[in-house]
Write a structure and sequence with these properties.
Shape: globular
Number of domains: 2
Mean pLDDT: 93
Distance between the termini: 48 Å
CATH superfamily of the largest domain: Vaccinia Virus protein VP39
Strand order of the largest sheet: 6-2-1-7-8-10-9
Bound molecules: S-adenosylmethionine
Order of helices and strands: HHHHHEHEHEHHEEHEEHEEE
Number of helices: 11
Length: 283
Amino acid sequence: MTELAPEVFQYFSRLIEEETGILYDVDNAYLLKNRLTDLAQGLGMQQVSELWRDVQSNGLSLAAKTMLFDLATNNETSFFRDRPFFDYFRRQVLERSQGAQRPLRIWCAAVSTGQEAYSLSMVLAELRAQGINLSYEILATDISPRVLKQASTGIYSQFEVQRGLPQGYAERYFRQEHSESSSLPVYRIHPDLRTAITFQRLNLLEAWPNLGLFDIVLCRNVLIYQSPDNKRRTIARLAQHMTVNAYLVLGDAESLAWLSESFNLEQQDGARIYRLKGPQLSP
Ligand SMILES: C[S@@+](CC[C@H](N)C(=O)[O-])C[C@H]1O[C@@H](n2cnc3c(N)ncnc32)[C@H](O)[C@@H]1O
């Protein structure tokens, strides 16, 4: 099968959109075909045509669905991605450290392999080393169990550690370990940075457990793959989980234009932050 047959494209793209919100349109059918080839091979089959025959006779097992949704996600991330935001975050923490009454609550709502959450922890650890001590909690969620597994072990390859970390941080916040699968070493995050973060599977499209309210929500580079309706719904739900004056951070290429009127855009030194306007209805 060189091209995906229309019925195969339709079946899988609809299933993926219903469950994850991720849109595959005909222009990126080749991407879906690559994902389905990986799925077929992961299930011990040679080709997508074999997978399709099996689906028609037996449907898709739960394990195969989980694997499909995992493969359908783009997990691209790096430490300190979109750096100006982390500088903004540092300034905000400095302001808040004067008289904070309770721990700062942060939610990374599509954390992928964890670099985003650990970058926040590193900013806070740097401040602590300067005597500015702020208690905080980070909830880090993602739909994909595979990426969450790496995130929660906090082990990164040399390539991953070389992407985005400011100078000196690899030595300060990671321990180099021998890898069993490669001649290159791996890097394990310092346990103190790990313990302040709770990793949990959460699909933004499904019902959420009781999460409480957050002062900062990072929902970066995930809504970009979703339909306008799903984006609107997710933004409205995120707003209900935010404290007054809380802020929402999207990816650099993302915007709330046409999606929500509940936020004001604040721009500072290259960082683009959305501040919640007023009290929201409780979730
Ligand atoms: C491109 S990564 C972004 C990672 C990080 N936020 C960043 O900006 O570097 C997108 C992440 O969103 C997750 N994702 C996709 N659909 C999701 C959904 N419906 N609910 C929760 N996470 C989802 C994917 O598994 C992936 O790890």
